Amino acid sequence: MDTLTHTSISSRRAVGLSVWLTEPIDNSSLILFRIAFGLLIAAEGFGAILTGWVRRTYVEPAFTFNFIGLDFLQLFVGETMYIVYGLMGIAGVIVMLGYRYRIAILTYAVLWSISYLLQKTSYNNHYYLLMLLCWVMALMPAHRYYSLDTRQKRVAKLLTCPRWCAVVFVVQLFIVYTFASLAKLYPDWLAGIPIGLWFAGKADFWLIGPILQKEWLQTIVAYGGIAFDGLIIPALLWRKTRPWAFVIGVFFHGFNSAVFHIGIFPYLAIALCVFFFPPEQVRRLFFQKKPPLTAEAVSSTNYKLPTWALALGILYFAWQVYLPLRHHLYEGNVFWTEEGHRLSWRMMLRTKSGSVRFMVEDKATGETWWEEPRDHLTPKQARKLATHPDMIWQFSQYLDKIYQERGHEDVAVYAHGEVSLNGRERAPMVDSSVDLANVSWQPFRHASWIYPDRELSE
Fold first, then answer.
1. Looking at the whole model, is its pTM more than 0.90?
2. Which domain holds residue 73?
3. Average pLDDT over residues 50-77
């Protein structure tokens, strides 16, 4: 009986959640975000070409460090990426206009996923968030008002969307900001060390360069970052603090954009705030000709959310919670080993520098050669390689392939290098006695050849 009662209660809760998520709400927030999102992703596509980022990241390198297991993406390396980013820019404009919206947003989602998974040298969590948002937007009825699709009658014009269309963004942002805040709660950040190292290189930055060198300001930035990330979503959700939270958010992201030059993310974060304001308020400000939502319109609209779709949504967010926590399953310090760092909202937390060179040995003859990464890679790739064990492993595999093509059938590759974390004295990060050409990558367990310990409280 207890089991049956528990099952019945769970079923009622699921039904109640489904009903709440499918309640019709004014779709003005979703429509406005589609327009802003389209503009921003178009700027990302075209801007990457015009600023030379595509050239430096995809064209100049002989190969890129793709996500492990996705080597087939190397087919895109080279001038093909100009086409990819040009198509993304066009797709972004089409998304903004709401013209054949589904095709446009799916095109951007696929192409951005390719470009994101193709290289890790310029990795950041903002690119990962953009990839997630592209796929989420592909599920949204974001073209049902103020779009060319409705004007040309490809789809019916609607004044509403189901509540889940806004909830998805709110929950995603809560996860992003919460884990970003928690990740900062470690000794080096609390001491302001990363901030101090970053600001040291900005002494001549506009008029505020000298101020950025002040220890008191660096302390404010360090603790303010923790407070902002941890409190911004609750503050936006509460009606009384929402206006102030929005103003603070604009200042915070504007500061980051000016000082750190992190692309479209600050403006994307500001645009996402639209989902925290009442849709009716958004309608009055931005769509004054749009009819207000009436009780009759709400009662006549019946959205459905299949149980399987609700289950998939819950699993998706459960996975989003798992990814930032998974580094606890690995031995060692994530700031040092990098295991569990990516896809975890660990944004701008530490600074690393180092150097590495590789010894290649022909096992049959005993002959050895030293290989310098800069002879094969761009300067940025070489710098990033030295501090990331997974990239060191990938480069070892690359050297193995190169030497096989030269006629050396069986070689060993050893990495010799040292790394500095947050300005500390350099120390070895990988075991130089391990043949990295002949070990497999194990994504779900600690790699024994990575030295796990680097205390952050020294």
1. yes
2. 23-162
3. 97
